Amino acid sequence: MPIDYRTILDKFYEKRVKDVMESRLSVIPIIDQNMGIMETAAFIAVNNHAWVVKSRDSRRLVGVITEKDFLNILRPGKKISYFGVPNKTSLNYEFFENAENIMSKNPIICTEEEKIKDVLDKMTFHNVRSLPVLKDEEIVGEITIHQLIIKFYNIINSW
User: Fold this and answer.
1) Domain parsing of the chain, residue ranges
2) Following CA atoms 39, 43, 44, 50 in sequence, which dihedral angle do they give, to the nearest 10 degrees?
3) CA-CA distance, 159 to 156, in Å (whole number)?
4) Are the CB atoms for 50 and 44 separated by under 8 Å?
5) Angle CA 34–37–41, to nearest 5
6) Are 39 and 117 in contact (CB under 8 A)?
7) Among 26, 28, 76, 108, whose CB has the most other CB atoms within 10 angstroms?
8) 142 backbone φψ class: left, alpha, beta (φ>0; ψ -120 to 50)
9) CATH 3.10.580.10 applies to domain 5-158
10) pLDDT per residue over 59-85, tens digit each?
């Protein structure tokens, strides 16, 4: 009897974020909004993105930094209103003192109780590969497209 992938997919869509998300805060890329620009650049070079929190103790999410945020600063040919076309001598590093200065505010988020289908819709619509999972405005986990693929593969494999 052939596997009914549609049924499997429908069941997968109904799963909750809490069943798939990474909740070990030690492996989630979280940085403090006051982290220096040099440390932030090094962190992004390794992790590709960072969830920016008010402080590591509170874990209150205030923004996200991606490689694209750095690209927007460094990209040649783009006029940036406060200092013109960037080049080696015109980048105003004093303006970019810490993570808070370059982060994107109001990142797309999800909660532990959202369905996987809704999370996939958000990721697709906003063209993102990961979302922070929030509870009471604090980050409690992260869900990535990679985790979703692995979970779906494991479900199919065990069917």
Assistant:
1) 5-158
2) -100
3) 5
4) yes
5) 120
6) no
7) 28
8) beta
9) yes
10) 999 999 998 888 777 766 545 555 555
